[in-house]
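User: Quick one: structure for sequence A, then sequence B.

Assistant: Sequence A:
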Amino acid sequence: MIAKIGRGSKIYGALLYNHSKVLQDNAQILHMNNMLQTPDGNYTTGQLFASFMPYLAANKNTEKTTIHISLNPDPHDIVSDEDFINIANEYMTKMGYANQPYVVFRHNDIDRTHIHIVSTTVDENGIKISDVFEKKRSMEICRHIEKKYHLAPADQRISGGEGFTFYPVDYNIGNIKSQIASIVRYLPDYYSFQNLGSYNALLSLFNITAEHVKKDYRGEVKEGLVYSVLDAGGIKIGNPFKASLFGKQAGLIALRSHFEKSKIVSPETKAKTRQTISTAQTIISNEKDFTAYLIDQGINTVIRRNEQGRLYGITFIDHNTGNVFNGSHLGKQFSANVFQELFSANDKNENLKTDLLTRQKSPLSNTQSPKEDLHPLFDFMINTGNIISDWGLLDALLLNNMAEDPEEQLFEFNMKKKKRKSRRNKN
């Protein structure tokens, strides 16, 4: 079992992300701990949020008050709802959240049935719950749960004994071959991509690129792939590695077969991705905020530009469905030219936006790069807080009433406003 822990500043966004799946029959509320109950067992996002309001009101200077956890058993593990609930409770208890309000969502919109847990990082007295050695403790808890519930060990299932890492390749820490292997061997098991360009868009999230090479050997043309590590600027660094070092599944022949299989995509799958991107196009014209919004919806955006800075390629990596789409594959309205015009048009309104941001800081401006916010092997985004910003009701209008309970947003906005005013008076 693999645990992915995300932290953010807005718990409403994390609840909204999960509850929207419930409304689409792609998830269900499996369990609630120390939460306010409704008579009929049905909830709105606002009703779920109400359980966390006293904790947020008591908060003593903790910026990231939201914790959003995904627990992912092996796809072949059969886990009952009762076991999922017990696993969630045991995990949260050992992580120090036994007395916290938290809600457990069971996601079934992809082949890997898994659970998400949303809670707050501050206790009822507003004190931050310790996150010391959080990742190490989480891994130890997962190993214990695997044994107790007879689940496939993550290290054996994924790494084959080579130490699988769930982070982008870091050239500075060495062992580059093992880092690359732990990624390229398994991406085809999780994602569909239709060509080398789409594959490279996905690999770029891990600081990796694959290059098609040809060589004349005794009158016969030999071709294959080599993998290289990318630096922070997307430039190849170090020596390349032949695909053969990573097994057949990472080679050109296997990938070409995967390309063909990936071209078979159901209309319903494409429609889901189109709808999410279309919504983003409607409400956001700024590139940075656009990509941040899609991260919250489970989609990474990879943009390619020429030397003049013009956008000539755009790829969407939908972690909800495990598909990588070039914009043109989704339709003309998602082509590179459309987004070039959309983002360029935003420049005309930059002065107005700058004025707004100087008066009140937007959390979208602090969005980290996808490589830091997200691990692409899974289907949820860490930085879910970006959906609902400090602008409160203004965002509800901009998002076409996407938020179900704007009064809750206004409450949180006013609460923070009072805190800021109180701090200024003290100073």
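Sequence B:
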Amino acid sequence: MKNIDSIPTSKIQRASRLVSTGLKVGVNYVKYYGEKIVKTEEQAKEKLNESNATDIYDGLKTMKGSALKVAQMLSMEKNILPRAYVDKFSLSQFSVPPLSPPLVVKTFKKYFKKNPSEVFDTFSTQSINAASIGQVHKATKNGKKLAVKIQYPGIADSISTDLAMVKPIAMKMFNIRGEGSDAYFKEVENKLTEETNYILELEQSNEVSDKCSNIPNLKFPNYYPEYSTKRILTMDWMEGVHLSEFVQQDNSLEDLTKIGQALWDFYMYQLHILRKVHADPHPGNFLVSDKTELIAIDFGCMKEVPDSFYIPYFELAIKENIENPAFFEAKLYELEILRADDNAEEKKFFTTLFHEMLSLFTQPFHEEEFDFSDGIFFDKISALGQKYAKSTELRKMNGNRGSKHFIYMNRTFFGLYNLMHDLKATNIQINNFKNI
């Protein structure tokens, strides 16, 4: 993969890159209208999606930062985005062009005030893994193998302007209206800002690894503050394969379920006991060791879950509560899904929509044991997502629904469910976290 010698950091440079990408997308639409004449609508649309996904991703991957992070977040929306976008944007999870070795040394020295060779016994200037906000290098110190994550230059300072540029796209994609939308985007901006603070990530990593250390078959690296700064994070080098690679191997059902149970226990323990959660559950953040242990390696995105949201949210995971119309309606108001200014049509529509969604989505919580390899369950989730993504009625209504906390909670559960399904994990003990 070709190295990057520079990253656009100024507002003008990054805006110009997006404009250039937009022009390519415009050309793709011209081709699309022409191809509709000689091809079927489905064939022409598929080609359009592939071309747009490629051009958008190619533009974002050289910008890195929050613009690329948004693509990473969208790659988890398997039930909303066309397949071409999901496949292309998924590359942002752990496979993007890295910084060139000279730029790596320059960036390290800027953040640490020393060259890597002055800090570590050995340091590989070629990255092992490059993602949206930073890239990882292998190093050694006193015989210990280390992973050194270096943040891309200028990324922390470009978050606000990046989000302002991608905001119109996101609003259209998720049917968010201008009025009242600022709270949602501020939530995303705050989380992205936190992700660029590696001192905070180090603290969060130590806290979670300490409190979750008793979960079976789950491991964490140690972190080293003496070799870390606000833009550099050093931890143990953990041997293993990414979760996405692991599920492609010829694994036994026992091993798949073992990893699935560890992953499920990890998330349930965080949510119900710690009341905060690792809100970035994509395959690039997890490894599997040769001992079939799950390794969690990234805690930049942690979401605190306040009681005001946690209580009604999980009360609606109980089947009897969903089936109680008065109770269900009251909780929808608490979660800001229904609003005092709703007319009769809006109230009926959103009550029906969320009843249908929650009745399906909370099924794992209605059982003591659940089979995440169940294709029918995931086909229903996909069909429901497609149904409302194409709903003309939904687009006519005010789409700003729900507490701002839904953004990362929904992201967490969609990501977790997708990982569990990829693992084809069966016989998962839903409430096993209570025994830890």
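The chain has 18 helices and 13 strands. The mean pLDDT is 85.

User: Thanks, that's what I needed.
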